[in-house]
Amino acid sequence: ELAGEKQSLTPQQPLDPRELAAQLEGAWHVESMSGVRVFHDYMPIDFQKRADLEQLVEMELAHRRHPAFAGLGRYLHWICRPA
């Protein structure tokens, strides 16, 4: 189940990024893809509470576009331009 809770920013009907990429193909060029919250949401709650926020943000920013981590993001941010 990928749908988020009501009254949150998590989409109620999230899109499969593979389906979105297929729909964009030919009409749009994806210039960059970033994962948002690629580590935070996978941390146990106790670890999240103890984590240094500045270090966590630094780690998120350093890995958000890495091919091995970007797709793990709770949210995906794509910058696209017409093909």
SSE layout:
Blueprint: H1 17-24, E1 28-36, H2 45-50, H3 53-63, E2 75-82
Antiparallel strand pairs: 1-2
Structure description:
By secondary structure, the chain is α+β, with helices and mostly antiparallel strands. Helix content is about 30%, strand content about 20%. It is built from three helices and two strands. A two-stranded antiparallel ribbon has the order 1-2. The protein is globular, with a radius of gyration of 15 Å. The chain starts with 16 loop residues before the first helix and ends with a strand. The mean pLDDT is about 90.
Short description:
With 83 residues, this protein is α+β, with helices and mostly antiparallel strands. The chain has 3 helices and 2 strands; from the N terminus they run αβααβ.
Q: How would you state the average pLDDT, rounded?
A: 89
Number of helices: 3
Spatial gap, N to C terminus: 33 Å
Question: What best-fitting shape do the alpha-carbon axes yield?
Answer: globular
Gyration radius (Cα, Å) is 15 Å
User: Got a strand count?
Assistant: 2
Q: Provide the helix percentage.
A: 25-40%
Order of helices and strands: HEHHE
Biggest sheet overview: 2 strands, antiparallel
Strand order, biggest sheet?
Answer: 1-2
Low-confidence stretches: none
Q: Structural class, judged by helices and strands?
A: alpha+beta
> Which percent range describes the beta-strand content?
15-25%
From the structure above, extract its key features.
globular, alpha+beta, two-stranded antiparallel sheet, 83 residues, 30% helix
